[in-house]
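re: ur msg from earlier - yeah i can do the hypoxanthine complex, just paste it... oh wait u already did. ok heres what im feeding in:
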Amino acid sequence: MTTAHPPIPKAELHLHIEGTLEPELAFALAERNGVELPYASEEELRRAYSFSDLQSFLDLYYALMAVLRTEEDFADLANAYLARAKEQGVRHAEIFFDPQAHTARGVPIGTVIEGLGRALDAAQETYGITTRLIMCFLRDESAESALETFEAARPYLDRITAVGLDSAEVGNPPSKFREVYALAREAGLKCVAHAGEEGPPAYVWEALDVLGVDRVDHGVRCMEDADLVARLAVEQVPLTVCPLSNVRLRVIDDLADHPLPAMLDAGLLVTVNSDDPAYFGGYAHDNFTAVRDALRLDQETLRTLARNSFTASFLDEATRAAYLKEVDAHGR
Ligand code: HPA
Ligand code: ZN
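and the outut:
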């Protein structure tokens, strides 16, 4: 049997690997590791996936990570994601992980990176997906903790392409992390940061001017600041937008009101991504079809979004060009 309409080839650039932990795997890992979950069943856990804001999601997201303990657990988590990503037309994935969420529970950073690395090393052969790893600092932890985390990761930097910044945004501006970003850049890493999700446009300016980011994660609140939009458009700074996440975390009231079309009209280099797909109701292609339907996007706009995802990636030029050719050939 052949698939009538294979999903358009795309890169996923905003994906927290811990946010791909499906209830089924959470319960399996809890059993394997003898961890007690405060939910009686997968159904009961799923019923808790109703969020009022970013923090209400983060509370559950961090709590469920208790089941991730061994290298094998992290490899299983990444493999489960990659299998789903393949079905969604993902050809390249740049994957966030939150080392401090694990080291704080006594899991060594090497266990996390080696476990994820084991799955990613086989991803090209097993799933036909190229990958990169992005190490995120938790912005509601201290600047010193981020610096300690970066030093602990030094032996593994050959596995890491970029650093990022995530967790509770408001009250934790990018400038808090000036020093660790300078070190990361010195070490040859790329830099990204969540900014302008719940936080104000000023945080996007700081991510650009203080941290020197190569991409902005989310960034949807840039639309409140015309000067910022002009800057992002002129410099073609990529924005990794996550539509289903924005609705589930109440950043946007309704998908039909999402600023994505306005962002495209403003000439921004926008991409569509899934953020924490196990929690927000869809993986990469699910986000594409959701915005297509809610915002009545035509085929050419979807193709632009797919092209943007590779343009905005940290791929080498030859691989990027090959993927862009796949996008152009899709459905023709
Ligand atoms: N925002 C901030 N931190 C996060 C998110 C998000 O959407 N997902 C996982 N950590
Ligand atoms: Zn995110």
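cool cool. The mean pLDDT is 97. ping me if u need the other ligands too
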